[in-house]
Amino acid sequence: MSEKTSCLLRVCALLLLLFGQSLQGPPSFSVDYKDDCFRKDGQRFRYISGSIHYSRIPRVYWKDRLLKMYMAGLNTIQTYIPWNYHEKYPGQYNFSGDRDVEYFLKLAQDIGLLVILRPGPYICGEWDMGGLPAWLLSKKDIVLRSSDPDYIAAVDKWMGKFLPMMKPYLYQNGGPIITVQVENEYGSYFACDYNYMRHLTKLFRSHLGDEVVLFTTDGAGLNFLKCGSIQGLYATVDFGPGSNITAAFEAQRHVEPHGPLVNSEFYTGWLDHWGSRHSVVSSAYVAKSLNQILSTGANVNMYMFIGGSNFGYWNGANSPYAAQPTSYDYDAPLSEAGDLTEKYFAIQEVIKMYRKIPQGPVLPSTPKYAYSTVTMKKLQTVSDALEKLSYSGPVKSIYPQTFIDLNQSLGFVLYRTTLPVNCSSATPLSSPLNGVHDRAYVSVDGVAVGILERNKAITVNVTGKAGSQVDILVENMGRINYGRGINDFKGLVSNLTLGKELLVGWTMYSLSIDEAVGQGLLWETTSTQTQPPQSASLSLPTFYGGSFTIPDGIPYLPEDTYVKLPNWKKGQIWINGFNLGRYWPDRGPQVTLFVPANILSTDAPNNVTVLELEGASCNSQPCTVEFTTTPILNATVQPEYEQHRRLSAKEDLL
Predict the structure, then answer these.
(1) Does the active-site annotation cover 265?
(2) pLDDT tens-digit profile of 231-278?
(3) Do 415 and 441 contact (CB within 8 A), yes or no?
(4) pTM
(5) Which of 267, 401, 455, 593 could pair with 648 in a Cys bridge, judged by C-beta atoms 3.0 to 4.6 Å apart?
(6) Percent helix, strand, coil in the chain (nearest 5)?
(7) Any residues with CB less than 8 A from the CB of 631 and at least 6 apart, and which?
(8) Active-site position among 87, 126, 185, 475
(9) 87, 126, 256, 265: which is the annotated catalytic residue?
């Protein structure tokens, strides 16, 4: 071979190396209806995916969780976009910090994972109001998830902001997103508005282009697919372990005679509710069903691969009203804290049978540390701290207003009125139309007298003189996220009565508790007012505070931990101003809350703030919170409402 020929060959090889991608043509991802598969860059492709919600995991842990998913053998992840997480108020968008979805997508791509994007606008996901922003309810008769003009206008504006952000991340544009879901399980919703789905299809196409694969997801039954599927969107199904796989995919084939088989939500576990047992699905059961699905050649997404946490107030609820707890562990292959479980390795073994998985060491669980027990002191009652908590000041009206009337979405509102007559004997204070949404803590002249709770307790007895001050602290425990009840108004949504008399003349205080806690306002003074004697079983809603120090000389600290509140009943807890979520060991099944290391400090004392709503037993012994290395998510409880419900059956949540 001449030197000239050799040189020419080397140049050609270099050009192929540099421009190989362009010679292959641009990236592409499509549905192949002839061979019943997906095509990626022209090659037959099957995804094995897992769900991860960036909104439930601190940003600092996104890489850790994604790497563990990749090492399990997944080639794809699936994630929801909660609209209300990014647009708390109309036109005010937040895509920074833990909400930086673009950074999340870049991480996934850097690790080698493709992405299935589920931007809604409705997502369900056991998330408050299914991801829809509560401010949509300012039009009281709005029909959500329909062609209602006000709803459509809000959706168009949101998608006009969000979808153009996603376009550069589509696979054909060099990004990781291979498919995009339109709406979510629409066949389970009462509206069955085909014009709405047509509008969304056109809207998504206008922003994302004609090449992207758009799809729908519905339960694996013709009754769901009837209203959930529509021409122009590829129809997929969802079902859990133990389902009749043949029948499930036959339902998909009824609306999609050709194309890839897809289970978009194969349930690795199941959701929890306060007052019901922690859901557990055996690893062997999940692995067996996963193997059966993959053996058919189908594509699958495991929901969830990691659940994470409903920090703050973001949990949803189901009907009849039952709120989900702070933990969204889901009995998933990766635990709430990102730890590898027996189920993780069982799934990995199944995946090994169908594709080569990455080589490398087993990624470790994040280390945990049991910090000291923290003694808590009483700070102030909610009533004492009212001026610090209610930035907007009082609102007066004849009848009580809802949270949305008061321009508040989450958290708490204090309703105040007076007794119109003397109540020398016990007189029923009632919500005859079951209008307490969702739980109300009632006091008269500074004495706790009872709790009203949606669907459970609509009356408490009160005594007092005419003119006595009645305070009702109402807690929004999470909006319904599934079914026709998602237009879930909060607060006192109907009038209260005293005996047979309608209560009028209300003063209402929207409470900005997170802001007050974050600014340390509740720590500036402790309560000096003498409170009237409280009952042994019930106390005024009260803030408590304590702190602990993490030595900075110990390597690797701070580390993750769990916090539990022995002898406390129900409330909310913050560490260094970060809202960890709700605790309710009295009802269970969750007892501990996950504390990610990134909110802890070795440079300054770590402040713990607790809002106890019912009464910590601090009279006979010190109040403490304890840190532990072991989660408790399955405390034994007596199921209150779920005996008729099945695991992995969403129709039972309607």
Answers:
(1) yes
(2) 999 999 999 999 999 999 999 999 999 999 999 999 999 999 999 999
(3) no
(4) 0.94
(5) 267
(6) 25, 25, 45
(7) 327, 329, 335, 336, 337, 562, 592, 594
(8) 185
(9) 265
